[in-house]
Amino acid sequence: MRIIPSLVLAWCAATVCAAADTPAPKEPATPAAEPGRPGKAVVYVIPVREEIAQPVFYILRRGLKEAIERKADAVVLDMDTPGGRGDVMLEMMEALDKFPGEKITYVNSEAISAGAIIASVSDEIYFAPKGIMGAADVIQSTGENLPEAMKRKVDSYIGAKIEVYSKKDPRRAEVIKAMRIPDFELKLDDEVITPKGELLTITAEKAMMLYGEPPTPLLAAGIANDLDALLAGKFGSRGYEKVTLEVTWSEELARFLAWASPVLMGLGLLGLFIEFKTPGFGWMGLTGIALLLLVFFGHYAAGLSGHEPAVLFVLGVALVLAELIFFPGVVVVALAGVCFMLVSLVWAGADLWPNEPLTVAVSGDIFMRPALNLAIALLMAGGLFAVFLKYLPKTSLYQHLAVHGASEAPAQLAGLAPQAAGELAGLVGRRGVAVTALFPSGEVEVEGRRYQAKLELGFVEANTPVIVTGHTDFGLRVEKAEQA
């Protein structure tokens, strides 16, 4: 669970640092073979490329979930990044920590800034012959330094996270600290590795230098020419099955849909609100459903949910339709359906992990962001619907939504201007006939003119006699008339 305040996360965003020129590394050494349990090791290779941002996080999360579901022995981050956003970096670290198997980072060229900190979660870090890692000072997205007080908070928090993840190798936390904090002097065996005032950026050769008693490498577990050499050396005694995660077009689509989900959800709910207010079923309802399906599709593409939320959403739609068609006026059935739909929208946005108990998920803030997205969507839809109630009945667009069908007589728009309210009031007590079925809204014909109307209770079929009992800004209120 994330415990850092949102303000600190905001200041922590966008950590991109430049690396200094480095000397050429020595000849690469293949990592030593490491015997494991019988059978081939299943290894997932997940690319961490370019800037650390949400698309990279989506790719990492998908790969980790697949690896968990297949009970993979290890994941390897194929890393080549100049750094990026601090908030995404923290999310990626937490995601990596959820994987129960072995975590390996292969510095395949560069692991700079946020990339270096993400690598600290790994059990082992390997380097390509020309790999470099470091320069991880936290700065603002504009490239300026953080205010001193804020920087102390951010550095303290990130340092604590790295210490937790580096319990098996305490020296790693010290090395990463020298990469993050220029005032920290890294000194081992009476040798000053990094003096105060400089940030540490190390080459593959430097990462393999031995320090301490007994002597151990500064940071790297080995140097490998490429991934196949790394895996062959590490799992050669038992063999391995390599699964390389391929980035698909749907990841980019998922990124956009996830970003736009509050807007899509709000417009979708608005379309359904308007559809329920107008007779029949038309393009507004279809558009609303299509937009909500896009929200679901985006979450599926990003790997945020299984099929359960969609089933709950379909059940909610079925209950609402049952209310309109079979149980008009009952309210409870439709209300339950709407609740199911809203819960499913939140559930679809929850980042649930395989085999994670539901009680653990509920106890955290895993539903916070999707619930906030839904709240934003409802507020937006409510505001737009209020504008619709006030202005749309006076426009020609409403005529296409509310007035169509079987009568050749001139159509009367619902929601008349104030000066025409007297005409509607004069129709109270008059008899007419339902032009369309009223479920409970539809159209009626009174004295040769057609109006939008709504039943107070129940429903009637087309061509049923009705009597006008009142009126609103949107039309007439009617009830079924007794046969004359």
Task: Note the topology.
Layout: H1 6-12, E1 15-16, E2 41-49, H2 54-69, E3 74-81, E4 83-84, H3 86-98, E5 102-112, H4 114-119, E6 124-127, E7 132-134, H5 148-165, H6 170-180, E8 186-188, E9 191-194, E10 201-203, H7 204-207, E11 210-211, E12 216-217, E13 222-223, H8 227-235, E14 240-244, H9 249-277, H10 283-301, H11 308-325, H12 332-349, H13 358-363, H14 368-391, H15 396-402, H16 421-425, E15 431-434, E16 441-446, E17 449-455, E18 465-472, E19 475-480
Parallel strand pairs: 2-3, 2-14, 3-5, 5-6, 5-7, 6-13, 17-19
Antiparallel strand pairs: 1-4, 7-10, 8-9, 11-12, 15-16, 15-18, 16-17, 18-19
What would your notes on this structure say?
By secondary structure, the chain is α/β, with parallel strands linked by helices. It folds into 3 domains: 239 residues, 2-enoyl-CoA Hydratase, Chain A, domain 1 (Alpha-Beta Complex); 146 residues, no CATH class; 76 residues, Nucleic acid-binding proteins (OB fold (Dihydrolipoamide Acetyltransferase, E2P), Beta Barrel), CATH 2.40.50. Helices cover 43% and strands 19% of the residues. β16 and β17 form a beta hairpin. The longest helix is centred in the middle third of the chain and has 29 residues. The chain is elongated, with a radius of gyration of 32 Å. The N terminus is likely disordered.
